[in-house]
Amino acid sequence: MITRLSNYFLKTLREDPADAEVASHKLLVRAGYIRRQAPGVFGWMPLGLRVKGKLETIIREEMIAAGAHEVHFPGLLPREPYEATGRWEEYGDALFRLQDRHGADYLLAPTHEEAFTLMVKDIVSSYKDLPLSLFQIQDKYRDEARPRAGLLRGREFTMKDAYSFDATDEGLAASYQAQRDAYERIFTRLGLEYVIVSADAGAMGGSRSEEFLLPTEIGEDTFVRSAGGYAANVEAYQVPAPEALPIAGQPAAEVFDSPNTPTIETLVAHANAVLPRADGREWNAADTLKNIVLAITSPAGEREVVVVGIPGDRDADLKRAEVAFAGFEVEPATAADFEKHPGLVRGYIGPVRGEEAVLGLEGTTGIRYLLDPRVVDGTAWITGANIDEKHVANLVVGRDFSADGVADLATVRDGDPAPDDSGPIETARGMEIGHVFQLGRKYAEALGLKVLDENGKLVTVTMGSYGIGVTRIMAILAELHHDDRGLIWPDAVAPFDVHLVATGKDAAIAEIAAELAETLDRAGVEVLFDDRPKVSPGVKFGDAELLGVPRVVVVGRDAAEGFAEVWDRRTGAKEKVALADVPALFGA
Amino acid sequence: MITRLSNYFLKTLREDPADAEVASHKLLVRAGYIRRQAPGVFGWMPLGLRVKGKLETIIREEMIAAGAHEVHFPGLLPREPYEATGRWEEYGDALFRLQDRHGADYLLAPTHEEAFTLMVKDIVSSYKDLPLSLFQIQDKYRDEARPRAGLLRGREFTMKDAYSFDATDEGLAASYQAQRDAYERIFTRLGLEYVIVSADAGAMGGSRSEEFLLPTEIGEDTFVRSAGGYAANVEAYQVPAPEALPIAGQPAAEVFDSPNTPTIETLVAHANAVLPRADGREWNAADTLKNIVLAITSPAGEREVVVVGIPGDRDADLKRAEVAFAGFEVEPATAADFEKHPGLVRGYIGPVRGEEAVLGLEGTTGIRYLLDPRVVDGTAWITGANIDEKHVANLVVGRDFSADGVADLATVRDGDPAPDDSGPIETARGMEIGHVFQLGRKYAEALGLKVLDENGKLVTVTMGSYGIGVTRIMAILAELHHDDRGLIWPDAVAPFDVHLVATGKDAAIAEIAAELAETLDRAGVEVLFDDRPKVSPGVKFGDAELLGVPRVVVVGRDAAEGFAEVWDRRTGAKEKVALADVPALFGA
Questions:
Q1: pTM for this one?
Q2: Across the interface, do B100 and A96 touch by the CB < 8 Å criterion?
Q3: Which of A567, B23, B166, B234 could form a disulfide bond with B171, CB atoms 3.0-4.6 angstroms apart?
Q4: What are the Aminoacyl-transfer RNA synthetases class-II family profile domain coordinates in residue numbering (chains A, B) (predicted)?
Q5: Interface contacts A/B by beta carbons within 8 Å
C-alpha cells in the first residue's frame, strides 16, 4: 500500500524541541517519529512505529533463529517475587511502585527475571525440559532521575529481554553463546559496529557478563581494549599483579617531618628536598602510596570504614570501587566517619597498623586495610605515618606492613597492561547496545526453580539474561545516521524504501509520479509518496531530507522528457535517471 | 517453520486453576495459552501469543482499510490531562495511580482519549487536516474490584482503541460510520454474531453510542430488541409515552384507610376489599402508582432526594436510573434522607405536593417529583396519601397532581413497546464485544483542540471513540468455541492450521509424519507437530483436543498402508484419508 503524505499523520517541525539535548531526540521529534507525553515517556506516530516495527522484526527473527520462544509478560507485576530476590529494595528510586485498590503492592517491571523464573518453575520439572530460552519484546519502566536524552534513556522503553534456563553450567555456557551469536547477527544486520567487552555484573550479581558497546566519542561508557583482543568495561578491567620484588637489601624505613604537604605533589617536592635518594633519582608520585578512606555499606545497612592503598599517581575510581566491593554501596568517608576513627590522622594516614608497631608507629588499629594489586611484596613507598605532619619513606610491603586483602579500584590509564598478557590497553568511549549475562543461580535459588537431574536429584537451575533496548537502539541509529538536514536511516530499518516526491502544479507530472508510485508498490517496494498538491518543492525537499528515507526520487520538470532525479541521502549524490529505470534501482 | 511439541514452551494441565470461574479462563490456562501473574494480570505463553497476534492482525487490517493510522501511546501517563477532563476523579478506584520519584502524579491509562486529543492538537491546525482517524493496539489498565473472569475482565488487557477527529458533526457521522462498518467486518471475519444496540454513554458523556453485543445466555449485559429491528442496551431503552386520556368524566379521588399494606400486593388486596370498582373489575398492581425515593448526588457532591412515580407492577432499575440521572450517582434514599424529609411518610408516600392541596393532603413540599413516561395525563391511580395508613384512589394525573418531569427508570419487560414503533420488544442477554461512540466535543473542549474552519474561524473538534478489547475477544471466542475436551478455535484465529500427531514407537511412522509435516510446511500450512517420542497416544490425543487447533491429523498404525486419520474438532468427525490427500485438505 502506498503511503501518501497528503493523508498521513505527520507534522515536521523546523525547531528543535526545547527539552532535547541529543541529536536523536531532536530529529525524531522534528521529523514526526515520536512526541513527548511526559519526561522520558513518548507517544509514537506512524513513522516511528514503522521503524520500531522493523527493528523488532530483525530482533525477533534472530531470537527465533537462536531457538528462543516468544512469550509476553505484563508491565504490572506484584511485589512478592521482587521482594524474594531483593530487587524491590535494591532498585531504589528507579522503580515505579504503586498499590492496587486493596492496598497490595505492585511495580512497573524494569526487567522480568522474576516473572520468567516463576513461569518456568510452573512449566518445567525435569532436566529433559531444558535447555530453554524465552524472550519477549515488551515495554519496561525505570524512573530515571533526569530523563533528558529522548529514547536513549526513557522512563518507558521497549526492550527485548531473553532468559535462558539450564540444568548445568555447561548448558548455560552453550545457551549464553547462542544468544551472544544472535546479538552479533542482529548488530551486523543493523550495521552497528560493536566491541564485546567484559562487563561488571553491577546490581545483578552473577558470573560471565559481556556488553556489546558501540565505539563512539559520545558514548556514556568507558571501556579498555588491547591490540591483542582484550576488551572490558572500565569497571570490569582488573590490573594484573606484577611479580613480587626481593625484600633483602632494601633501605630501612624512616619517618620524616612533612608539614604542609596536603597533596601528593607537595609531598613529592618535600621528599626530594629533605630525603635525597642514594642513587640520585628523584622521587615522583608513583613512589608514594595514597591511602583512600572509603565507607562501604552492606545490603543489610552495616557501614564499615576501610582504607585502600593505591599508587600516588592514580586516583580512586568510585565506579570501579563499586565493583571491587560488589554488593556494597561505596562512598568517600565522611567527617563523621573520621570522628569515629581517631586513629586516622587526616593527611597523614598510613598502612601500618598498631599491632605491627613498625618504628613505633601506632597505626590504624581495627580498620581493614586493602592494597592495589600493583602494590606487591617488596615494593617500597613513601606514605603517611599515622602521625600529624609525619610521613615515612622506604616502607616495604611484606617487611614493614601487610594488607588484609586486595582492592582494584584505581583509575585506569592508556598503557596499563591487559590482564591476559595481550599488550597495553587503551581506553575508549562507547554506548551500550546490548548485554549478555550469566545470572547463574541467584534468581532460581531465591524463587525455588529446581529440576530433577539425570539421577533424579533436584538441582537448582542456572540462568542467563540477555537484553537489547529496542527504542534505545533506534535512538542510537539516529545518532549515528544523520546530517545537518535530517535523518538518514540504514536500509534495514528505514520506514520506507523510497521517498517519492512529485513537484510542481502540472497535473501531468503528478500523474507520472502516481504511476511510478503504483509500479513500485506493485513490485513490493515500500513507497512514501509526497503527493501534497499545494506544498512547495522546497518544503517537500526539506521534509524528504528530514524524514530520512535513504533514497529520494524526485519527479518534476524533467518528467515530461522521461526523467526523474534520484538522491542518495548517504552519499549526497543526485543523479538523473530515466523514469523507466527507476524501479530497477529498487530491485523492482 | 514447523513448531515441534518436543521443543515447545508448553505444559497442559489436567485440573482447572483454582481461581477460574469461567470456561475461557479455565481452558486458556489448562491448554497453556496464559498464566496468572497476579489477580487479573496474565503472562502469555507462545500459544497464547499466536492467537492474540492473529486477532490483532485482523483488527489492524480492518482499521487500516477504514483509513485509520496506527500510533502507539504509553501506558504511563501524567495526571494533568485527565484532571482537565475530570477523569482523574471520575474513574475512582478503577484507576491505577502512582507517583514518580519527584512526587509527580501519574496513572496507568484505562483508555487514551486525553493522550490522542493532545497529540492531535499538537499536529493538526486546520479543517484541511481532517477528517483524521487514529488507532492503537495497546495494553491498558483498570483496577477491577474482583478480577475473576480471566481475560474477560482483566486488570491489564490489550485493547484496540481508535479515535476520530472532525471539524463538523457531519464529518463525525461519517467517521463513526466508517468505524462501525469496520467493526462489522471484523466481527464477521471472526465469525462472531452481533447485535448493534443503542447504548448508554455512561461515564463518558456524548451523543450517539452503540455497542456490539454478542447474544449469549452467559452475557453480563441485558439488551432489548424488537422483531422490527430496534435494539438497545436495556439502560438505553426509552419507553414511548402513550397518548393522554380524557380527564372529563373520571371518578373523583378519594382517600381511604389502608393499615397494614406494606406491599403493592397487600395494598391491591385491601383496595379490592374496601373499594370495589363501579364496573366490577378488580384492582391490580398496574393500577397502583409506586413512589420510589432516590438520593442522587451531583459530580460536585450535592445530594438531592427525589421521588419517582412508576406503575406498581414494575420496579426501579438502578442502572437505568443512572442513565435517567446521567452524570449523577443514584442510590435508594437512606434512613438519614428520610429523617431530613419528614414530609415523606414511609409506606404511604404519594405524588401530591402541599401547594396542590388536593383533598386537603399536605404532600411532599419541596421535593422534586418525577413520573414514569407511561403515567400520562388522564391516567388514574391508587397511590399513597402522604398520611400514615392512608392511600388515595382515582387520583388522576393532570387533574389531581402533576409532576416536575419525567424519569424513565422502571424495569423493562418482554412485550414493552419499541420506541420506534417496530413492535414489542424482547429482552436478551449479551456480551459486549465492541463499542462505537460519538464523544462529541467534550475532550476537545477540555483540552483546547480547535482548528480553523473554512472561514478562518477557530472551531472545536468533534471526536469519536471506538474500542475493541482484544484479549477480551479472545476469551469470548474461547467461551463460544469449546467442548468438554477443550478449545476449538475458529480458523481465523487458530494458533495453527493443523495439529499433526505422530503416534507409536515405530521410527518409520515418525518418519512418515515428519515428511508430511515438511510437505505441509513448505506449502505454507502452519503445522503444530506432536513429535514427542515418549508420550503415549492417549496423552497426545488429549492434548490435541485441549489445545483447540480445529483440525487434527493422526499419523499412526495405518501410516504404513498410506493412511492418516483426520479429525474435525468442530463436527467431531474422524475420517480415514490417504496420506497423499492430506495436503489438499489444507489447500496445499
A1: 0.89
A2: yes
A3: B166
A4: 48-490
A5: 142
The pLDDT profile of chain A, 588 residues, written as one tens digit per residue, is 999 999 999 999 999 998 898 999 999 999 999 999 999 999 999 999 999 999 999 999 999 999 999 999 999 999 999 999 999 998 999 999 999 999 999 999 999 999 999 999 999 999 999 999 999 999 999 999 988 889 999 999 999 999 999 999 999 999 999 999 999 999 999 999 999 998 864 434 447 899 999 999 888 889 999 999 899 989 889 899 999 999 998 999 999 999 999 899 999 999 999 988 888 899 999 999 999 999 999 888 899 999 999 999 999 999 899 889 988 899 999 999 988 888 888 888 988 865 555 555 555 667 899 999 999 999 999 999 888 899 999 999 999 988 999 999 999 999 999 998 999 999 999 999 999 999 999 999 999 999 999 999 999 999 999 999 999 999 999 999 999 999 999 999 999 999 999 998 889 999 999 999 999 999 999 999 999 999 999 999 999 999 999 999 999 989 999 999 999 999 999 999 999 999 999 988
Q: Which residues of chain A make contact with B10, given a CB cutoff of 8 A?
A: 123
Best of B8, B28, B37, B471 to disrupt the A interface (most A CBs within 10 Å) is B37
Edge to edge, what strands does the sheet with B303-311 contain? Answer: B329-332, B289-297, B303-311, B368-371, B405-406
Domains A49-75+109-237+427-479 and A254-406 share a fold: no
CATH architecture of residue range(s) B48-71+110-237+427-479 = 2-Layer Sandwich (3.30)
Cβ-based contacts of B156 with chain A (< 8 Å): 74-76
Interchain proximity B156–A76, CB inside 8 Å: yes
Residue to mutate among A44, A52, A69, A72, with most B CBs inside 10 A, is A72
Strands B390-396 and B254-257, by their bridges, are antiparallel
Residue type, B537: P
One CATH from 3.30.70.1450, 3.20.20.390, 3.40.50.1820, 3.40.50.800 for B496-585: 3.40.50.800
Nearest CB to B75; choose among A44, A75, A124: A75
Are the CB atoms for B235 and B320 separated by under 8 Å?
yes
CB contact under 8 Å between B76 and A96, yes or no, is: yes
Specify the residue for cell string 515488551.
A138
Distance, in Å, from the CA atom of A36 to the CA atom of A16, rounded to the nearest integer, reads 13
> Which residues in chain B have Cβ-Cβ distances shorter than 8 Å to A4?
none
CATH number for the segment(s) A49-75+109-237+427-479: 3.30.930.10
> Dihedral (C-alpha) A114, A116, A120, A123: value to the nearest 10 degrees?
110
| Best B5, B33, B44 residue to mutate vs chain A (most A CBs within 10 Å) | B44
Q: Which of B70, B108, B115 sits opposite A37 (nearest CB)?
A: B115
- CATH homologous superfamily of domain B254-406? YbaK/aminoacyl-tRNA synthetase-associated domain (3.90.960.10)
Which cell is B433 given? 464485544
Please give the grid coordinates belonging to residue B122: 499538537
CA–CA separation, B110 vs B113, rounded Å? 10
CA closest to B49 among chain A residues: A71
Domains of chain B, by residue range, sit at 48-71+110-237+427-479, 254-406, 496-585
Given an 8 Å threshold on Cβ–Cβ distance, is A43 in contact with B73? yes
Look up residue B552 and give its three cell numbers: 487434527
Q: Do A74 and B46 touch (CB under 8 A)?
A: no
* A chain contacts of residue B122, beta-carbon cutoff 8 Å: 11, 35
3-state SS string for A302-314: CEEEEEEEEECCC
> What distance in Å separates the CA atoms of residue B586 and residue B588, rounded to the nearest whole number?
5
User: What single string gives the DSSP state of each residue in B376-402?
Assistant: -TT-EEEEEEEETTEEEEEEEBTTTB-
Cross-chain Cβ contact A44/B72 below 8 Å: yes
